[in-house]
Amino acid sequence: MRALSEFGPSAVPVKLFFFDCLKLLEHGDKNVRDSVKNLVIELYKWIKDGIKSFIADIKPVQLKELQEEFQKVADVSLKPTRFIGGSSKAPDNDVGGAADEVSETPAFDPLDMIEPVDVVSKIPSEFYSGIVQPKWQERKEALENLEKVFNTPKIKEGDFGEILSCIKKVISSDSNINVVAIAVKCVEHLANGLRKSFSQYASLFLPLIFDKLKEKRGAIVENCRNCLNACASCLDAENVINVALPYLKNKSPSVKEETVKFIGRFVISVGNKSPKNLVKSLVAELVKHLKTV
User: Fold this and answer.
1) The TOG domain covers which part of the protein (predicted)?
2) Looking at residues 97-115, what average pLDDT do you find?
3) Residue 166's CB: how many other CB atoms inside 10 A?
């Protein structure tokens, strides 16, 4: 645990021991159990809510205890105090030679700790027949079963062409808003689980989801917001903004309002990674929009 505390999870191969250590929460020796709890709490300090999916299957009592401990350290923000190469100072790329002495550690991604799930092989065999049923309740049930399969944090790459073509048709043409809402949720899960591997599909779904923002019901709007965020995370900033900007001129006030909110969320999420010229054009378009409101 000392190595994790000093070097951070980017430098320590947490994946190699963390899940085996979790099993020791059942150990008969209280000292062992407490040591494991301290390890989990230490990792939480580094990755915060990123740890949730890793401890979801432990006993409810243990989970409750850990969550209570998490609250006590929720405001703790850690940085490495030691670095690969033996230095106790962070790499300084502005000073000649310093970067050569210390190996800069890449940012830690909690998802690197888990294996991707092959969801394609788990698609319910009855989905394709269920999704074309005349009763909306049966179509909704088919999509709900599919959503359960797709709702996993890390998805293995595969052939999603057929299933996404089917989902796209549902979103664009199904007359029941409850069915559409679940279909949108399925897209969100795939975008979150596949991440950059979903980029080829994300660019196709973004316009479709923007169009659905005209709906009035809260459930579908909230699902669309989350789906837009997920799809946008799979694409570069320029592509996302180029798709979003035309919707500032949409006839629907709801679409325009939600587009402004989306752009705000997206700009915050990418931070200073956005190209300066893109930010300038974006600000100019937003100013034009505000003048017409």
Assistant:
1) 112-291
2) 61
3) 18
